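pipeline/complex-builder :: batch 7 item 3
reading input block
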Amino acid sequence: MVTLNDIAARLGISKSTVSKGLSNASDVSEELRQKIIETAAEMGYSGRRTQKRLCILVENMGYKEPNQFGHDLILGFTQMAKPEGWTVDVVPLDKERQKDMTYSDFMAQGGYQGAFLLGFSLVDPWMEEFRTARIPTVLYDNYIKENPFMASVGCDSWGGMEEAVRHLYELGHRRIGVLFGPLDSYVLKERYDAFLSAMEKCGLEVNEELVGVGYFVAESTRKYLPKLIEKGATAILCSDDSRAVAAYTECVDRRVRIPRDVSIIGFDDLPITAYMNPALTTVRQDRLALGKCGYYALQCLLGGMDIHSIVLRAPLVVRGSTGPAAARPEKSAEEASHGSGT
Amino acid sequence: MVTLNDIAARLGISKSTVSKGLSNASDVSEELRQKIIETAAEMGYSGRRTQKRLCILVENMGYKEPNQFGHDLILGFTQMAKPEGWTVDVVPLDKERQKDMTYSDFMAQGGYQGAFLLGFSLVDPWMEEFRTARIPTVLYDNYIKENPFMASVGCDSWGGMEEAVRHLYELGHRRIGVLFGPLDSYVLKERYDAFLSAMEKCGLEVNEELVGVGYFVAESTRKYLPKLIEKGATAILCSDDSRAVAAYTECVDRRVRIPRDVSIIGFDDLPITAYMNPALTTVRQDRLALGKCGYYALQCLLGGMDIHSIVLRAPLVVRGSTGPAAARPEKSAEEASHGSGT
């Protein structure tokens, strides 16, 4: 069987250039591309591209266990893709690997026609290339404005956050704190903006003292949770369920009762949240549906349809971790008056 | 064959109540609904609901000719729906008909499982019912926030408007006017907000004198176009291609040359725009793709997937109606200095 190496040898160019030429990469001249294609045809190269291959690239999230965030995203995608004859590779990725090779090379070498990207952050090395890469790509919870080869799937953070804050407001909470992951992620930034907008809609002021942002879940929760409680937060919104789980641990350690002393709301609705004690009130992301929509969006791109985004609703699931606002200890009475506007 | 009337007579209730009960409408009590369903089953009623029926309701837009806006929206939807065994009825609608009966009754009587709604405005009589109706419904260019049975499809006005304004900015235009349809339509309001945001991003001020908003295309164009030109607009953005066509007519009447005296940009990319003289620069809405996405969104709702919206990109198609900004006549020189910030 003729390989990329055979074509490369015949033309006296590198294997990766052959691969780029065959995958229509933009950094190969049109003339060279034609030459590569003609040589490949002449030598009887059938290529991997005759196979239907897609990949799911995963970074910054677990996916192997059913209780991990990425699991159902991948399941939803593959449930749709496999019956239609696609081979789907799931490839874990990190920043180092992105520095070693370009996105276009990675895709060309794997023979992938398109990709579904999970967990990429705005500071990833490939982000710059995503602005111009001519490879049909769907990003979960991320968005590349300039590039028509890229589409986005995600949940409606604005609706979800508004429901969450309104729920707390109706329970009498006025001092609402947040525990958030780093805001250099597109989705966490959006979710935080949605929180600010929801607070404004409820006539509540955001108190800087009640905002705890940090990268490492356990560490930043340990640092900020006691501070938020001390400063009089009667409710804490977490940017994700993992932070809510960590908040529970801290609350148990400090004998802070949920929801009597403090109400907690998560975001994601991971399977575990229904079995926590008390069960966690959280904003639902239907990850199976998101995975399916990811596949649909990729099919649109592969079919030349100029899709921009698919958004699912993010409804609040009310369980036991939210209750009426508790009266706060004396020391925060003065501060408590700040955030009580209606 | 047993009919709705037979069931109504047996139960001593109206036909429309039977219909509501069978279609799960929210204004029939659970007890009555059960009774209706049991009676229907007992009498051997098979019902229209055993057929797969959808409808496309059209208001405020032409759709019968290929050059009309609604044509490809409907084509895209039916191209997807028919191979999957759906019967699709296209029903033109007006406000009077909406006053005569409720949306739920209309859907129940037609035996429709879901609907794709085109051209509805925020002041439509059914809008209020859309907040609570439990019928899978996809709206083109409209959005009902509160109701999980409703999803939305449309184009990215923000991206489209930004490209259009930036294009004019790069051609040296600083006094950009608009001819817009009424802002009580969800999409025109969004498109206008997108225009404001795009102007701000380019460092341009919006001059009230250069804004012409009106319902009737020919009438409002005749009224505002001369005013905008007189006030020194070197470019005019239209909210839709029909307005751009009307603007051409006015320009010919007044010997205003396009693009030498004024640049014109439309929105929609109707088939006719490529054959205008000069061919119209416009923002593209891929209506065939929008119709397909409408069908996909409706399938999501029917399958219980909590979809919120599908958005397509709206790229600018540059043709002959835009060119470098012309020097304006003396009388507007003073005003011209207002909008020239960078």
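note: The two ends of chain B are 73 Å apart (CA to CA).
queue -> next item
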